[in-house]
Structures are given as C-alpha cells and as structure tokens.
Amino acid sequence: MVHAISLALVSFALWLLLSGHYVPLLIGLGALSALLVVTIALRMDVVDREGHPIHLSPKALLYWPWLGWEIVKANLDVARRILDPRLPISPIVIRLKATQKSDLGRVIYANSITLTPGTVSIDIDGEHIEVHALTREAAQALRTGDMDRRVTRFEGDE
Predict the structure, then answer these.
(1) Residue 69 lies in a domain
(2) Do the beta carbons of residue 44 and residue 4 sit within 8 Å?
(3) Which of 34, 39, 51, 88 shows the greatest Cβ crowding within 10 Å of its Cβ?
(4) pLDDT score at 54
C-alpha cells in the first residue's frame, strides 16, 4: 500500500510539474487522474517493489549525472566519426556479463548501454547482455566494466 501511495504522489507531482497549471479545478482533476491511474494499476496487479523502484531515487542523483556525461562523450565521438570519414567505424557484437542481482538492475544496465550513442543492447539472456557497438573502442569501454560496476552500485543491496 505504501508503494501505491508513493506512486500516486509521484504521479501527481509529475503531472503538476509537466502541466504547469495551478488553478484549483485543474489541480483537483490532476490529483483525481493520478488516483484513477493508481487504482487501475492496483486492480491490474502491476504495482510491486521492482516495478516501482522508489528506493533507487537518492542513488539516481549520483548515477544520472555520470550517465549524462558518458552520453555527451559518446555523442561527440559518434559525431566526429560521422563528420571525418578517416576515423574508423568497425561494428562489433559483444557479450557482456551483467553483475546486477535483479532483473531491474540488468534492465537499467541494458538501457544505459542503449542510451549511450554508438552502442545498442540487442538481447538480455540471464546474466549476459549482447551489445552491438559501432566501434571497437566503444566495445572496449564496455568491457572494462565501469558502467556495469556503477549500475550494480546504483542498484545496491535492495
């Protein structure tokens, strides 16, 4: 039940932030919408701890800026390779071991890989993620395991 209440509060806060409407009638309708969505989600039995990882929120403040910087660096690298035909593009498919303990952790890892330009997660198979990398350098950066360790730390003991 705590998850349902926090989901309703987060949904309403997001609605309020994105709508920008602060008229009492619209605030009431936004709160009603958030409650309706949570009620439907509860009836569908889709509200669980892993599906609503509110416990990761404080750790996200450390992980997201790091991931954002990795995305910027990869964007610049891919743009350079597109603009300078002398720079090599050597696509490769690699298989990485994911050290995360939960499905949620592995999904965060796979999504982080896909968000980083030049790499795409193709498949998650148990403890392994298959990745297509645009360059051998991008593949090697993933093989070092830095992103894997950071996602595992982000996931924590929960």
Answers:
(1) yes
(2) no
(3) 34
(4) 65
Among the listed residues 141, 152, 102, 97, the one whose alpha carbon sits nearest the alpha carbon of residue 119: 141
**pLDDT tens digits for range 84-141:** 989 999 999 999 999 999 888 999 999 999 999 999 999 999 999 999 999 999 999 9
DSSP at 21: -
| Predicted confidence (pLDDT) at residue 157 exceeds the cutoff of 60 | no
Cα separation, 15 vs 39, in Å, equals 16
Does 49 fall in a domain? Answer: no
**End-to-end CA gap in the chain:** 18
116: in domain = yes
**Tens digits of per-residue pLDDT, 57-75?**
788 888 999 999 999 999 9
Question: In total, how many domains does the chain have?
Answer: 2
**What's CA 89's distance to the chain center, in Å?**
26
Instruction: Tell me, yes or no, whether 146 and 72 share the same domain.
Output: yes
Domain that holds residue 19: 2-43
CA 112 – CA 10 distance, rounded (Å): 23
CB 121 within 8 A of CB 110: yes
How many Cα atoms are found within 13 Å in the side-chain-facing hemisphere of 50? 10
Strands (E), 51-126: 92-97, 119-125
